[in-house]
Amino acid sequence: MSAILEATNISKIYDEGAVRTQVLTGLDLSVRPGERIAIVGTSGSGKSTLLHLLGGLDTPTSGEVWLHGKCLNHMNETERGLMRNQHLGFVYQFHHLLAEFTAIENVAMPLLMRPKVSTADARNQAIEILENVGLGHRLEHRPGELSGGERQRVAIARALVTKPSLILADEPTGNLDYDNAQSVFAMLSELQNTMQTALLMVTHDRNLAALADRQLLLRNGKWEQY
Ligand SMILES: Nc1ncnc2c1ncn2[C@@H]1O[C@H](COP(=O)(O)OP(=O)(O)O)[C@@H](O)[C@H]1O
Ligand SMILES: [Mg+2]
Question: Which residue ranges in the chain fall short of pLDDT 70?
């Protein structure tokens, strides 16, 4: 089947006055539907930069990113935002939930950004997915009233509630202890598998990386033999 995400010859240079930092050099990547890819690399190797470019949160210095047959490079911010909302889910190392909102409200938010979704529909879908991640008993809790593992589950529910075709996850278990990391990853895998969502995950943990279909090693902004 054809790729859902295709990146060709991606380079990124941060240019700040006298300081010029080449972070990524000529990277190619292609993600097929439902595929699970793990990216590993030491701190500073460009993993987060790459995920931002692939997710249309930043633009490459050169090279192209294609999502569902559309090139993200030349879109304006509104168009890119629509593509993100329609096709992508993001999970970060630190949950990025909004402190003043409940679990349901946080998870419903990406649905409420869509023009034709009612509040009731969004809430119902949020409840359903929160139940799927084992948080049916924490629906009205705010992030500050949840454990680290529970917050990551809410973050994953929020990323998946829109039924994206690809999840971009930047160290999603990096802030959790071993047992929580295992169970959060198992839950993410199971949902990803049932929903046929592709997963591109940055991780430090080679044991978790081994569970993916494909492993990629980023070193100094280039792919190396894993
Ligand atoms: N906005 C920026 N301006 C300048 N340099 C940056 C910027 N963001 C990241 N970098 C540099 O790019 C390199 C890669 O960063 P990053 O993608 O965050 O790495 P990783 O996620 O693999 O730890 C680092 O050396 C970092 O200092
Ligand atoms: Mg990073």
Answer: 1
Summarised one tens digit per residue, pLDDT across range 55-80 is 999 999 999 999 999 999 989 999 99
Q: What percent of the chain has pLDDT over 70?
A: 100
Ligand nearest the Cα of residue 41 is 1
Give the count of domains, the chain.
Answer: 1
CATH code of 65's domain: 3.40.50.300
Q: Is 168 in the pocket of ligand 1 (CB under 6 A)?
A: no
Q: Ligand 1, closest atom to CA 21? A: 5
The residue among 149, 204, 151 whose CA lies nearest residue 174 is: 204
User: Which residues, chain by chain, have CB under 5 Å from ion ligand 2?
Assistant: 47-48
Q: Does 49 sit in the ligand 1 pocket, CB within 6 Å?
A: yes
Which residue has a Cα nearest atom 24 of ligand 1?
44
Which is it for strands 70-71 and 62-67: parallel, antiparallel or unpaired? antiparallel
Q: And the tokens for 133?
A: 């991640």
Please report the pLDDT score of residue 18 as a whole number: 86
